[in-house]
Amino acid sequence: MMNIPERPWPTGTSEVVEPLVRRVLAPNPSPFTFTGTQTYIVGAGARVAVIDPGPDEELHLAALMAAIGDAEVAAICCTHTHRDHSPAAGPLSRLTGAPVIGCAALAYEDEGPRADAAFDTSYAPDRVLRDGDKLSGPDWTLIAVATPGHTSNHLCFALEESGALFTGDHVMGWSTSVVAPPDGDMAAYMASLDKLYAREDRVYYPAHGPQVDKTRQLVRGMIGHRRQRERQILKLLVEGLAEITAMVPRMYKGVDERLWPAAGRSVLAHLIDLEQRGKVSRVHESWSLLD
């Protein structure tokens, strides 16, 4: 995990990151959003798309409207429906008349300890994109890339003209993605990482943290990290540690203990994956290796 840079951050400022892409940082910094949610405006002409409009914050909406200016908004696209990504979609749609197009609606009741935002129950898309579906404007084409795992409805968006990929929370340069059951799925997440590794995207623009230029190198490292966590879990089971509450202190030494309950959700995601692959079994909260 990368250290959060010193203030000031470019909150509310429209930054040009490449000719067809601008970025506006929302005022919602936190331990799980880094300096805040980054909303992207795609297109340099009269029609643009907005990716991950972010939280329903008056200052952020005002900054987005200023950045959009006189352009028509062709689509408001959401990668997934956590509350730091999609709540501004409805208000921005009402301000611009643009349709909300992107991931499917998902409002999952989850009372467990979280290390990310809860789900946005207000999200109501006008159109749901499937893997490979396209949106286009006069100078841009966005292609939906289904990447379930962090959430079951997660999408990335590929900008055909420049080779950029907007990765939401699936791949970030500052931290690994949270995979928290019951909706977060480790097997799906790993398959989605493999899917991105097989691509040749030039740059990643995540919703939090800096852009990623060494795209396949980062994804390879993330796959290795998850496999290393899996090996840790199997080793601890061999040593006789049968419960997640006993595993977490060993696996997350040096991590703030207040984050341990949320870290346990990631361990649970790995154990569920291992169970589905026939490597472990459980009785209530106790886990064991299968021969």
Description:
By secondary structure, the protein is an alpha+beta fold. The radius of gyration is 19 Å and the shape is elongated. A five-stranded mixed β-sheet has the order 1-2-3-4-5. A five-stranded mixed β-sheet has the order 8-9-10-11-12, with no helix packed on it. The chain has helices spanning 58-68, 89-96, 186-197, 215-238, 244-251, 260-276, and strands at 14-18, 21-25, 38-42, 47-51, 72-77, 101-102, 127-128, 134-136, 141-146, 155-159, 164-168, 203-206, 280-283, 286-289. The protein folds into two domains: 14-213, Metallo-beta-lactamase, Chain A, CATH 3.60.15; 228-289, Winged helix-like DNA-binding domain superfamily/Winged helix DNA-binding domain (Arc Repressor Mutant, subunit A), CATH 1.10.10. It contains six helices and 14 strands.
